[in-house]
Amino acid sequence: MNKNKVKEKNKKIKNINLEYIMSVNVLKNFIEVLSTKYKTYAPVNKEKRVVWAQIKNFNEISRDYIDGIQTTILPPKYFFFPPNEKLLFLNSNNVDYKKNEQIHEPFILFGVHPCDIHGLLLMDKIFLENYVDDFYKEKRDNAIIIGMDTMPNEWNFSKSAGTDIIDSGFDIFLIPLKENKFYIKIATKKGLSLIKNINGLFPLNKNDKKLLTEFYTEKNKRYKRNVDMHDLPKLLDRTYESKIWDEIGKQCVACTRCSIVCPTCYCFNIKEDYYLNLIEGERVRTWDSCLRQNFALVAGGHNFRSSLKARIRHRYYHKERIFSYIYGKSACVGCGRCSRDCKANIKPDEVFNKLRQLEIKS
Amino acid sequence: MKNSLYLPVKTKILKTKKLTELEKYFQLDLSNFKKFDHKPGQFVQVAIPGVGEAPISIASDKNKKNTLDLVVRNVGSLTNLMHKLEDGEYLGLRGPFGNGFPMEEMKNSNLLIVAGGIGLVPLRSVIQFYLNNKKNYRSLTIFYGAKTDKELLFTDEYETWKTKGINLNITIDRESPTWKGNVGLITTLFNKIDFDYLGSKILICGPPVMYKFVLLELIKKAVPAKNIYLSLERQMKCGVGKCAHCAIGSYHVCIDGPVFTYEFLKDKVEAL
């Protein structure tokens, strides 16, 4: 397909914008129907946390997730860019590599938060622009995204990051309302085909619109973390030499948990291993992190970021500063997962606020 | 999608030659590639099944025989195994990758190559390109520095280069009974050799420590930053702008480089 055709196709897709109201019972029925047809993954409770898992009915979905008590451990990148992915099979006798052909079928990601959809759209820029990453694309093409707005959890600052609202990147979008109702928006042909046989979708009436406004009022009120992210790339330019980076460099323990849980961290490593017949083997890619000691080491022994201070500063600058210059937006979507899981209690929203305060003082 | 961005092409080694104690030359047969259209200064990812991949500079210009030259220093696990490969054996190859030197942009200029150690390897592709397209350039001067005369690369080509009009200047760091030429760091050549620095394009490749001192010399001579081209070394894992091991901020050396102007690099952190 040439570029113009793709553009046209995208335009057509964007033209669909149907809004309805449904009762929670209709949604329950909808999910049951969907999950018989497609593998359907949604946030579920597991050992006091929330993880993505395959579901068969609505009641399995984490109430904590919908209520904004907590979000999933991992962002949805996990489905398209798995932590450990076999890319190639190898044969050392024949000096031969073969692609690991995976079997793909359409699947549903249910309940993806707006900030996580923003994260996926940024990952698409990395993996689908310039050189197209075939392993990512094959999975991404098969995904049906059902987004869902929820209350923000205590770490989330997506409102500050401008990712609390989303208008593309999903097939269907849901908002849980009072009176056991759900708002549903259909954005693509795929989405339209999914609701084809669903009875019980009604146009929004005055009361529904009021409930929708109430949801947003309540959501906005629930944000506990606010950070001034305007002008962030320039703020970082001005504060590159700030003593804050020395402090954070001392605090960070390079556990790399922030990279694991980040919706837009995409660094990876590639390695090969022999099977035990010592002839065949496989090439695997694994998640990596720029916080690791040898991440920027070259063959001659020079390490471009040998100190932890340089490495964690690079992580912030990569995400917030130059990403903005290239793609027009910061790669931090404000999901708050890294604040939640940092071993050293470093919170990016607090880092940004500190940098700004320090700058004002001086 | 049977093909993959990460799938190496099985490539035959036509010829090998040990150049120095640490460096070995490989001539590869490109006939298994549907298309391999490379430019001076680009690189490939070389694979040995079971060991993995490493980025290696291309050391030759396009030629009719459809072959490719690599020169590899034995410094890691992959390059160590490469050194054990002989004529007629195979390796995996992906590429070519990177932007290469903008030879079009440099037309009608004097060219100065500044190479340190194996930095001469990617620049040999420029030398060959120059010899193939001589009428488009005013002149080519080379400053080449190595630790000892035993580490000098492509020694059997120097005479040809010189007879074809290339101004070749070599210096070695330490005196040696077998060496009669210049002794001293590469920067000492800048005061010894008379050259029109201002009206020229400068192409640099060498170890990270060399860039700093060479740039100081060029700044002293008021060479505009946009006329200075540097080829950077990073450990690329993917070669296609994804894995971020070679990131300078959000620029990837593998696709946005490895060649950058000093104009571009001077305000970038952790680049040089």
Protein model, in words:
The complex is a heterodimer of chains A (362) and B (272). Chain A has 362 residues and is an alpha/beta fold. Chain A has 15 helices and eleven strands. In chain A, the strands form two sheets. Chain A has a seven-stranded mixed β-sheet, sandwiched between helices. In chain A, strands 5-4-11-10 form a four-stranded antiparallel β-sheet, with no helix packed on it. Chain A is globular. Chain B is α/β, with parallel strands linked by helices and 272 residues long. Chain B has a domain at 9-97: Translation factors (Elongation Factor Tu (Ef-tu), domain 3), CATH 2.40.30. Chain B has seven helices and 15 strands. Chain B has helices spanning 77-82, 120-132, 158-163, 189-192, 208-220, 253-256, 262-265, and strands at 9-18, 23-29, 43-48, 52-57, 67-73, 90-97, 110-116, 139-146, 167-172, 182-183, 200-205, 228-231, 247-248, 251-252, 259-261. Chain B has a seven-stranded mixed β-sheet, with helices on both faces. The longest helix of chain B is centred in the middle third of the chain and has 13 residues, at 120-132. The N and C termini of chain B lie far apart (39 Å).
Keywords:
heterodimer; A: alpha/beta; B: 272 residues; alpha/beta; Elongation Factor Tu (Ef-tu), domain 3; 7-stranded mixed sheet; 6-stranded antiparallel sheet; globular
Briefly summarize what is shown.
The complex is a heterodimer of chains A (362) and B (272). Chain A is an alpha/beta fold and 362 residues long. Chain A contains 15 helices and 11 strands.
Give a topology summary.
The complex is a heterodimer of chains A (362) and B (272).
Chain A: H1 3-15, E1 18-23, H2 24-37, E2 39-46, E3 49-54, H3 63-67, H4 77-80, E4 84-91, E5 96-99, E6 107-112, H5 114-128, H6 134-141, E7 143-148, H7 158-161, E8 172-177, E9 181-186, H8 189-195, H9 206-222, H10 232-238, H11 243-251, H12 257-261, E10 268-274, E11 280-287, H13 308-327, H14 337-341, H15 348-361
Parallel strand pairs in A: 2-6, 6-7, 7-8
Antiparallel strand pairs in A: 1-9, 2-3, 4-5, 4-11, 8-9, 10-11
Helix pairs in contact in A: 10-13, 11-13
Chain B: E1 9-18, E2 23-29, E3 43-48, E4 52-57, E5 67-73, H1 77-82, E6 90-97, E7 110-116, H2 120-132, E8 139-146, H3 158-163, E9 167-172, E10 182-183, H4 189-192, E11 200-205, H5 208-220, E12 228-231, E13 247-248, E14 251-252, H6 253-256, E15 259-261, H7 262-265
Parallel strand pairs in B: 7-8, 7-11, 8-9, 9-10, 11-12
Antiparallel strand pairs in B: 1-2, 1-6, 2-5, 3-4, 3-6, 12-15, 13-14
